[in-house]
Amino acid sequence: MSKTAIIIPCYNEAVSIKGVIEDCKKYLPQAEIYVCDNNSTDNTAEIAKSLNAIVKHEYRQGKGNVIRKMFREIDADCYVLIDGDGTYPLDCAQKMCDMILKEDVDMVVGDRLSTTYFQKNKRPFHNFGNRLVRFVINRIFRSRIRDVMSGYRVMSKFFVKSFPVLSQGFEIETEMTLHALDKKFNIKEIPVNYTDRQEGSFSKLNTFSDGILVLKTIFMLFKDYKPFKFFSIIAFILLAFSMFLFIPIFIEFLQTGKVPRYPTLFVSGVISTIALLMWVCGIILQTIVRKHNEVYEIMLNRIKNQ
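and the corresponding structure tokens:
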């Protein structure tokens, strides 16, 4: 029989954790429930223990650190990742698990943005941020992901045990999505209703500081995963600026036969050289990434056959 593990990262979720665990037992009665307490100052861990959940502790602050620990320590065939704030209903969890176990899907994402998220979420900057991140990632990776940062995911053992967790905080969901897209894992999405937090429960996500971290993660992973495109864009911008400086000088030279602004010509030449170097860097790094992907595919084959 396939083993299903429910992973619930928690930081001060005493108000909602009971309802989340009860929903887990209702909709996935066969699953083992793991609550990972991330330095809560309330009685989240005690409530979880009283409901017979397996409680673990991660003392390095941050959701990414929690997920790294749980992915390393828990062995299962199907992993359900759900937030402890009670904003995600679990009525479609069994269907999501069946897609992992029976249809050879690697990750099923609970898509909030296609249903009630924008109506229920009262923070306009969060809504704008979700749309911006979705637009940027779909443009970069030529994908059609509807909810990049959903905290409700069901994953296969194949994905979990081959996913290198690099993030420490809330940017972890973005990292998971980008990794799955770049490494061509089989991703599906299911629309899920999003409900607002219960009264007395507060979000730990900071719109601006965590939003900057998410954008930084996208920027860094774009550079790492698609270096040719990344450095080509930089090269194009530098070359365009170089031409902006050079063309007036060239026109003046054609008209008068003189070059009166040698410093500007020199700067234009230096910028053009840097642009060329950026483009060459992109070519070299893309070759390295391709070789890395070949090695990664071989590693995946070994994991699959274990």
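(Above: one complete record from the training split.) The chain has a mean pLDDT of 90.
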